[in-house]
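Reminder to self: keep the SMILES exactly as supplied, no canonicalising. Ligand is zinc ion.
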Amino acid sequence: MSYKNPLTKVNCPFCGEEIASDAKFCPTCGVKLKETVEEQKTKICSACGYQLPLDAKYCYKCGVKL
Ligand SMILES: [Zn+2]
Ligand SMILES: [Zn+2]
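Structure tokens returned for the bound complex:
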């Protein structure tokens, strides 16, 4: 009763449904599967690690020049 399945199956991290590994969305719950690399609009202060907007010239927290 086994059949060859050319598609690699993965389980949806959200609903657990078995879906094709190359699916971009889970057909069952609709969750987005491909990790979208969200463009970082922030940078991290090298002095204190505070997260700042990319266009910040000074750290809002420690005041260091960026
Ligand atoms: Zn799902
Ligand atoms: Zn800082």
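Points to follow up:
The chain is about 0% helix and 20% strand.
The two ends are 64 Å apart (CA to CA).
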